[in-house]
Specification:
The complex is a heterodimer. By secondary structure, chain A is mostly helical. Chain A contains 15 helices and 3 strands. The chains are: A mainly alpha, B mainly alpha. Chains A and B meet through α3, α4, α5, α10 and α12 of A and α2, α4, α5, α9 and α11 of B.
Chain lengths: 376, 386
């Protein structure tokens, strides 16, 4: 199947179209709200909440007795919120740290959910089949109505984000200041946390409980590398999320036996890896290049100032010296010497070097700077 | 009880012990979530090991899985060191990626592999007694009992051998390295043991519920004691008792054993969280309320001490002046009266001698701000508390 055929299929085939659209919207909302989670250092909250949502789904099924994804979402939302506020309660009222609280809620809720799921499985009721798909997610079960629900919720959260943009931004970077300005920080906090919970719950059906946290984190973590501006970061994260949804769906659709959820997560992981390495501002590659350049500069200056020390003792600064005498000095390499010549600081003739006028001036400035700093 | 039932409970208890011991140190070192990461990311190790050995309980599998656990830790630390993202984000990025690789590997070979993700993640303790270890044709018990038993022995041995070192490096890493104990070795040693335990426990209780068995008993014990030895003991007790109770709960409800073990753990934690003496939710709330009243009392007495004029010391006036509600001012007045700090004569409040000394000392305390004094002072002055 080539790209053109695939694209045609996306527009004609109902299932593929629904899944592609669904994962794209999901990726976008996760990226958007995930940016807040990452910046608020709540990265792993996503993991805890997605696990904590499981008992909610099971209880919702026990109550209504049939499968209905919007009721499940409600159940998941409620138990996710209970989990979130219990985590808050543990960290604020006891001396247990947030990592312990997260791990506790995650595993205890999940275990309880498993208890309920196995209980449901033993029930004489044919409707329960497919409840497990919430564990690992099954994008193929997405219906058009689910996608509409996602789009509506994304729209609502976008509006809320825009309405409270200034407040949320302030809360993100300086919570104390926000409070002194008279904003209701508790309300804002609950607002943004609830929306993060909603985004997580939305994704459960598609990528599942276990991998949901990555959906939330990865686009935001990748976007963080490209900008220091919150608005830009949110937009980039949404784009990264949506494109990993689309690409992941495409890859898994064009191969046998590739489940969509894990592929989406891996694609998002590739985005993160790429951003970590190649982002111009913070990326590892450019950081290494800058680091090397600085080190070379430093060596160059060291060599230059050493030359200056020698040249200074002579009346004629351009008096030639043997390159050999530089040997006992560490910063000297053939390359750095060449570079000095390129910059017109020295001239080289055979095995001799001599300082030029401009090199002497630069070096003396360098020297002045150094001594001045030393005196201060 | 049939012998299979006894064996299941024995395996569950062993798993609980094996998890509780490293769990205590992980909770104390604020690294509880690394178990979350490890338990997910051992999946690719298990899958690759399974491809090689075709046997879910071979030692090679455990070694490979433990290696992938340690790789996770190394990766997480590498990402943290680059400073590109916050530390918890690093955990959240690494394990889903590794887990996805594992899931895809399984799905790709689903046809010729008897390994399904549910079994790895959720485990099935009920089948553990059927996989028996035979030595020289003789049945010596379930295989997983031997595996987890060995892990418990190793963990206990290491705990006894390095107890002092572990204790020092957990509570004071600086002191530990000053004493010549390498924090790096301690750290990776603990990580290796955690990975091995997670792997050993996965086919019994499943990879996710290992997290519960590691964190929950330790966290519950931590709410009850501040003594490391007691904490270790308590968390082992909590682990084992929830393993056994969980088994019977599962027996009654006919549900997954690991799920009901976790549920029991959750209930125990909830009870302790609510009712633990001095650290539980209720006693914290009670203490906070008491402290609020004490502060109010102090404010009230200071106000009295500062004003000699009668109209400032009128009962009604106090309501308005310190801006308290009626109920609160009444309870503060009552408390002060009960403790003989004030006398009320015709609705005019006057400090007694005791009240005056208390106020002066309280001001001294506020100026010096030494924490230890206030407790003694409270004991000396208070007969009744709010």
């Amino acid at each position: 199947m080539n790209l053109k055929e695939y694209l045609e299929l996306v527009f004609t085939d109902y299932t593929l179209r629904t899944i592609t659209l669904g994962t794209a919207v999901l990726g976008a909302i996760c990226g958007m709200l995930g940016s807040f989670a990452v910046l608020r250092k709540q990265s792993l909250l996503g993991d805890a909440i997605s696990h904590a949502a499981l008992p909610g789904i099971a209880i919702a099924f026990l109550i209504i007795g049939t499968k209905n994804s919007s009721v499940f979402l409600l159940g998941a939302l409620i138990s996710g919120l209970i989990g979130t506020f219990w985590i808050r309660g543990i960290t604020s009222k006891t001396h247990l740290k947030s990592d312990t609280a997260l791990g506790l809620i995650l595993s205890l809720f999940f275990g309880f959910g498993m208890l309920l799921l196995t209980y449901i499985q033993k029930m004489p009721n044919a409707n329960q089949a497919g409840l497990e798909s919430y564990l690992f997610g099954q994008a193929a079960t997405l219906l058009e109505s689910d996608v509409w629900l996602m789009i509506i919720i994304t729209g609502i959260s976008l509006i809320i984000l825009l309405l409270f943009w200034k407040e949320l931004k302030l809360l993100l970077f300086d919570a104390d200041y926000t409070k002194t300005l008279g904003f209701n920080t508790k309300f804002l906090d609950i607002l943004i946390t609830s929306f993060i919970v909603i985004a997580i719950v939305l994704g459960l059906q598609t990528v599942g409980v276990v991998l949901m946290s990555a959906m939330l984190l990865a686009p935001a973590a990748a976007a963080r590398q490209w900008t220091n501006n919150l608005a830009t970061m949110v937009v980039i994260a949404a784009i990264f999320g949506a494109s990993s949804g689309v690409l992941g769906t495409a890859i898994s659709a064009s191969h046998n036996n590739l489940s969509t959820g894990p592929v989406i997560v891996l694609v998002a992981g590739v985005f993160v890896l790429f951003s970590f390495i190649f982002s111009p501002g913070r990326g590892l590659l450019f950081r290494e290049i800058r680091f090397r350049k600085n080190r070379n500069d430093l060596q160059l200056h060291k060599t230059l100032s050493f030359m200056y020390d020698i040249a200074r003792t002579h009346e004629n600064i351009s008096h030639p010296h043997a390159i050999k005498i530089l040997n006992n000095f560490q910063g000297f390499t053939r390359k750095s010497l060449q570079e000095l010549e390129d910059k017109n600081y020295v001239t080289i003739e055979g095995t001799m070097w001599s300082m030029t006028e401009s090199g002497f001036r630069t070096a003396s400035n360098l020297y002045n700077q150094l001594t001045k700093e030393g005196n201060e | 009880m049939s012998s299979a039932q006894i064996e299941i409970q024995l395996i569950a208890s062993m798993v609980a012990i094996a998890c509780a011991i490293p769990g205590v140190f992980l909770v104390l070192r604020k690294m509880a979530l690394i178990t979350d990461a490890i338990s997910h990311s051992i999946l690719p190790g298990i899958v690759i090991g399974f491809f090689i050995t075709q046997d879910l309980s071979s030692p090679l599998l455990i070694i490979l899985a433990a290696i992938s656990g340690v790789i996770t830790v190394v990766l997480v630390e590498f990402i943290q060191k680059t400073g590109l993202v916050k530390e918890d984000t690093a955990i959240g990025l690494v394990f889903p990626a590794l887990f996805s690789i594992g899931v895809i590997l399984i799905a790709q070979n689903a046809n010729d592999v008897h390994l399904d993700i549910d079994a790895v993640l959720l485990g099935e303790l009920a089948f553990a007694p059927f996989d028996r270890l035979t030595i020289g044709g003789q049945d010596v018990g379930p295989k997983s009992l031997w595996i987890i038993g060995t892990i418990v022995l190793i963990t206990l041995g290491l705990l006894l051998a390095f107890f002092k070192e572990l204790k020092v490096s957990t509570f004071d890493a600086g002191l530990a390295s000053a004493m010549g104990l390498s924090p790096v070795i301690m750290h990776y040693g603990l990580m290796t043991i955690s990975s091995i335990t997670t792997v050993g426990a996965f086919d019994a209780v499943g990879a996710i519920l290992v997290i519960a068995l590691m964190i929950a008993p330790a966290a519950t014990a931590y709410l009850l004691t501040n003594d490391l030895k007691k904490m270790l003991l308590l968390s082992v007790i909590f682990g084992v008792s929830s393993a056994i109770m969980g088994y019977w709960l599962a027996h009654i409800l006919d549900t997954s054993i690991s799920g009901s073990m976790t549920t029991v753990l959750g209930l125990i934690f909830l009870l302790v969280y609510l009712f633990a003496p001095s650290k539980g939710l209720f006693s914290v709330l009670y203490r906070q309320k008491q402290q609020r009243i004490e502060v109010s009392l102090l404010t009230f007495l200071l106000h009295l001490g500062n004003h000699q004029e009668e109209e400032e010391r009128h009962v009604k006036h106090l309501n308005e002046h310190i801006n308290w509600q009626k109920v609160q001012s009444k309870s503060v007045l009552d408390l002060a009266l009960k403790n003989n700090m004030i006398t009320i004569h015709k609705d005019i409040v006057t400090l007694t001698k005791k009240g005056e000394t208390f106020t002066t000392e309280a001001i001294d305390y506020i100026v010096d701000n030494k924490n230890s004094e206030i407790e003694n002072m409270k004991d000396r002055f208070f007969l009744f508390r709010g």
